[in-house]
C-alpha cells in the first residue's frame, strides 16, 4: 500500500488549524504541514474566549489557512486520502464551522470523513514527535478547557478511558483567572510561567485541591486554589503590603504542578502503566514538565511531552488521530455527523 495523506481540521475553540500528515504503509506518521490561525488577541480584552467572535474568526481564517497548509506540504487537495475534523468537545458555533467545511470538502472530493474527539487529538499530537504509543499509557491532558487523566489502551483507535477529571476549573482556566487577579495579560499561562521563574515556589503554601484521604483519587479541583490566591492578595492589599508578584505566581504554579504530577504518577503506579504523556496548552508550563520529569524518573516512568506547538490546539493533532483511525481500518463517519459540544472522551 502506498502513502496516504490525511488532512486534519480543528476549530473547537479559538484556533483554526489545518494539518497534513503522511501515513506510511508501515503506519509511520510524517508531519507535512501544521498551519494555525488564532483569534486569541481578539479575546484578550474580554479575559476569555467569546464564542461568537471565535466562530466568525474561524469563518474568515478557514480558506486561507487551508491554502497555507496545502502550500507548505506542496500537495493538492485532490491528493488528500481522508479528512479528519474535530466533532467535539468545544464551542458549538466554532465546531460547526470546521465540521461544515470538512463535510463540504469530503463531499466535493469524494473522500472519507472522520469526525474525531479533540481530547484524543491532544494525545495523538505526541505520536507525531515521539512515535507510536505503547500498548498501555496514561495521558494527562491539561488545557484551558480540560484537565483529565486518560488511560489509553491498544492505541488511539481503540480504548480511551477517563479515570479522572477536574470537578470545577480546568488547569489552564485557573492560570487565566489567577493572571487576571495579578493584572497579567490573557492567556495567563505564559506570563505566570515567566514571572514564576524569578519567584520562590515555597514562599506561600497554597492549598492542593482534592488531596485528602477521602477525596477522589484522580480528580482535580483548582477553584479553591484560585480563591485562596485571591484571598491572599486581598489580605496583603488591606495590610498595605507590597504584593510579591513573583512569589505568588511561583507558589500558585508550584501548587498546580504538584497536584497534577502527584495524581498522574499515583494513577500510573496504581494501574501499572509505565508511560505518561502530558499534552494540552498547560503542558508547555516549565515547572509542570520539570517536576513531572523529576518525579517520573524517580518512579521509573517514561515521560513524553510534545513540543509546545503540538501541545496547544492545532490541526496536525487531528490529522494524526485521523491517520491512526485510517491505519486501524476504522469505519469513516456518516456524512450527516453532528457536532457534539459536550462530547466525552
Ligand atoms: O490547549 P490550549 O491551547 O487550548 C485549549 O484547548 O484550551 O490551552 C490553552 C491554555 C490557556 O489556559 C493558557 O493559559 C495555558 O493553556 N497555557 C499555559 C502555558 N502556555 C499556555 N499554562 C501554563 N504555563 C504555560 N507556559
Ligand atoms: Zn485543546
Automatic annotation (TrEMBL):
CC per GO annotation: cytoplasm
Positions of the Gcp-like domain: 30-319
Record flagged with keyword Iron: yes
UniProt-annotated location(s): Cytoplasm
Function in brief: Required for the formation of a threonylcarbamoyl group on adenosine at position 37 (t(6)A37) in tRNAs that read codons beginning with adenine. Is involved in the transfer of the threonylcarbamoyl moiety of threonylcarbamoyl-AMP (TC-AMP) to the N6 group of A37, together with TsaE and TsaB. TsaD likely plays a direct catalytic role in this reaction.
Cross-referenced NCBIfam families: gcp_kae1, T6A_TsaD_YgjD
Protein name: tRNA N6-adenosine threonylcarbamoyltransferase
Species per Swiss-Prot/TrEMBL record: Lentzea guizhouensis
Amino acid at each position: 500500500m502506498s502513502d496516504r495523506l490525511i488532512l486534519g481540521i480543528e476549530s473547537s475553540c479559538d484556533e483554526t488549524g489545518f494539518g497534513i500528515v503522511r501515513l506510511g504503509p508501515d503506519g509511520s506518521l510524517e508531519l507535512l504541514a501544521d498551519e494555525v490561525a488564532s483569534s486569541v488577541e481578539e479575546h484578550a480584552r474580554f479575559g476569555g474566549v467569546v464564542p461568537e467572535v471565535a466562530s466568525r474568526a474561524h469563518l474568515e481564517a478557514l480558506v486561507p489557512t487551508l491554502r497555507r497548509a496545502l502550500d507548505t506540504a506542496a500537495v493538492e487537495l485532490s491528493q488528500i486520502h481522508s479528512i479528519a475534523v474535530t466533532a467535539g468537545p468545544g464551542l458549538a458555533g466554532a465546531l460547526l464551522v470546521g465540521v461544515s467545511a470538512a463535510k463540504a470538502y469530503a463531499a466535493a472530493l469524494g473522500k472519507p470523513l472522520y469526525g474525531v474527539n479533540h481530547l484524543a487529538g491532544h494525545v495523538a499530537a505526541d505520536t507525531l514527535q515521539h512515535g507510536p504509543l505503547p500498548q498501555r499509557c496514561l495521558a494527562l491532558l491539561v488545557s484551558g478547557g480540560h484537565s483529565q487523566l486518560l488511560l489509553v489502551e491498544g492505541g488511539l483507535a481503540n480504548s480511551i478511558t477517563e479515570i479522572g477529571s477536574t470537578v470545577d476549573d480546568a488547569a489552564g482556566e485557573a492560570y487565566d483567572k489567577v493572571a487576571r487577579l495579578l493584572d497579567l495579560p490573557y492567556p495567563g499561562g505564559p506570563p505566570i510561567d515567566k514571572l514564576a521563574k524569578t519567584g520562590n515556589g515555597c514562599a506561600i503554601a497554597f492549598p492542593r485541591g482534592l488531596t485528602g484521604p477521602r477525596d477522589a483519587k484522580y480528580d482535580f479541583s483548582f477553584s479553591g486554589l484560585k480563591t485562596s490566591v485571591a484571598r491572599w492578595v486581598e489580605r496583603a492589599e488591606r495590610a498595605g503590603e507590597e504584593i510579591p508578584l513573583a512569589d505568588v505566581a511561583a507558589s500558585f504554579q508550584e501548587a498546580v504542578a504538584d497536584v497534577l504530577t502527584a495524581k498522574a504518577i499515583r494513577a500510573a503506579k496504581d494501574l501499572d502503566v509505565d508511560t505518561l504523556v502530558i499534552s494540552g496548552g498547560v503542558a508547555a508550563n516549565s515547572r509542570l514538565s520539570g517536576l513531572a520529569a523529576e518525579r517520573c524518573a524517580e518512579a521509573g516512568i517514561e515521560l513524553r511531552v510534545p513540543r509546545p506547538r503540538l501541545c496547544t490546539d492545532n490541526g496536525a493533532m487531528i490529522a494524526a488521530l485521523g491517520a491512526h483511525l485510517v491505519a486501524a481500518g476504522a469505519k469513516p463517519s456518516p456524512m450527516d455527523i453532528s457536532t457534539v459540544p459536550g462530547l466525552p472522551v
